[in-house]
Amino acid sequence: MRLKLEPLTLPAAEPSLAPQLTVNGDSAILSWIETQGQTSLLKFAQRTASGWSEPRTAASGTDWFVNSADVPSVVRLDDGTLAAHWLQNTDVASEAYDVRIAFS
Is residue 5 part of a domain? Predict the structure, then answer.
């Protein structure tokens, strides 16, 4: 059996950053950050048999801690619940931040 690799067209707009791909069973979710002015948006799309779903916004804010090492994510839990996490600045001078979590 040969493995066939094919490039995918991703649903993220440009510019975007901090991609994260999560898999639970047959469900794959791609999440990423887009920016609009000073606002960061955590977006995600689910991979289906026909391609990527339309991107949805899981969270947004103007006080996020964004870097290339600590990327936010959206995951589907075993019961079907979606869980999202991102980092929110609490003290810019000391680079302190909290982890925010939302469920849907």
Answer: no
User: Has residue 4 been placed in a domain?
Assistant: no
In a domain, 9, yes or no: no
Q: Is the pTM of this model over 0.85?
A: yes
Under 8 Å between Cβ of 12 and 55:
yes
Q: For tokens 């975007």, what's the residue? A: 16
Domain limits for position 60: 16-103
- The CA-to-CA distance between both ends of the chain, in Å, stands at 39
Q: What tens digit of pLDDT does each residue of 56-104 get?
A: 999 999 999 998 889 999 999 999 999 999 999 998 788 899 999 999 9
Answer yes or no: is 31 within a domain: yes
Q: Which long-range contacts (CB under 8 A, 24 or more apart) does 94-97 make?
A: 95/65, 97/65
